[in-house]
Amino acid sequence: MQRDTIFTGEVSTQLKLSADRFIRLSLSLTSLFQTLITIMSGNALRDLNTLPAPERKNDSSSKGSFTKPCNGNTIENVEEQQRKSLASVQINGGETENAQLKKIPASVQINGGETENVQLKKIPASVQINGGETENVQLKKISASVQINGGETENVQLKEIPASVQINGGETVNVGVEVANSEVEYIESENLSDLEDVDTCLKNLLLGLDSKDWILVVEALNNVRRLSIFHKERMHSILSDLIPLVVKSLKNPRSAVCKTAIMTSTDIFNAYNDELIDSLDPLLVQLLLKSSQDKRFVCEAAVRALEAMTTSLSPTLLLPKLQPYLKNRNPRIRAKASMCFSRSVPRLGAEGIKEYGIDKLIQVAASQLSDQLPESREAARSLLLELQNVYEKSHNLSMAVSEHPEMVSWENFCLSNLSPLSAQAVLRVTTNLTREGLVIGS
């Protein structure tokens, strides 16, 4: 009995030892098996990435979403790559640019003109990117702004322009770039020709001016110019409806429309003169704004329109319209208004100036004499000399017969109508300029 107990204990101990060895062996085998799986997976990925592009594309459907190495190390998810879809585009031998599939910034040189940045907005989905084969593509839309002949022509004609596209080092293909703009020609008034069908033009004039197609608007504006020159009586009946549409074109952000509208305003001023006085305010505001902006060719056209306004409209009607803008917060608008004001006053004549009131006019000129812009100050000096000349000529007889000529002198007139500081500034300008004139004349 004792022997059986001892034998049973030894067997139990051996079984425990065997179980421990089996567990340790199982753990070792599990670890080894996991290591082998990891090694095999890495080899499979390396083999996949060494395959050519078409084979890798065909295998991807059965093997799941495998990843592609970038720069030899980093693995990037395919879905993320497809979402970004970056590509490189080279247009007409220009610099290669990285871009999004839907919008590719590039540089296009058109008709030997200045190179402009554009957006290539559409590429068909069949184009393969990032190492795939490059197919022929048609880049169908480009928005471009090209200045030709120093800014006189803003856009270019509708036509196909050859270009080449190179995508991520793939094969370079020729494409057609369709430039969706039209040429705008600015015709001087003396070069405008008469209309062939005046009745049809008048019938469609207001619709053309209110069109959403800017090319049709420019065409309608030029027809307004022709009617103003050759058939102003025929257009007179629709003038009240036409002026707001011209003002709308003056506000247009497209320079071609804006400049043509400014040239139209010039021809309207020359044609209708004082008949425009009731509709002048919106035109005047826009012309003062355009004459004060940075686009040189628009600014110059607006200045010419303002000059036409001052020579076409009666100064007695124009001066009250200009006077509020002499106090405008914008110094450039004040300067242009001052120049118009000083050009209009001499057209009153000596008698007209006295009727309008020299005392009122000298206060206006004195206020502009201290303006921050030199154009305003120069316009004020010119106006003051004109006022001094008219005043002294009208008071020469009184000074000759008066016992106290100093009481009607120019100096006393300034002191009696202006503050001491303003009077000193006016007398300093007029006295010095008068002396300079006398020295030059002698």
Automatic annotation (TrEMBL):
SUPFAM superfamilies: ARM repeat (SSF48371). Residues 61-73 have a biased composition (Polar residues). Its main location: cytoplasm. Keywords: Cytoplasm, Cytoskeleton, Repeat. It comes from the Eukaryota. HEAT repeats lie at residues 318-356. This is TOG domain-containing protein. It comes from Hibiscus sabdariffa (roselle). The lineage of its organism: Eukaryota, Viridiplantae, Streptophyta, Embryophyta, Tracheophyta.
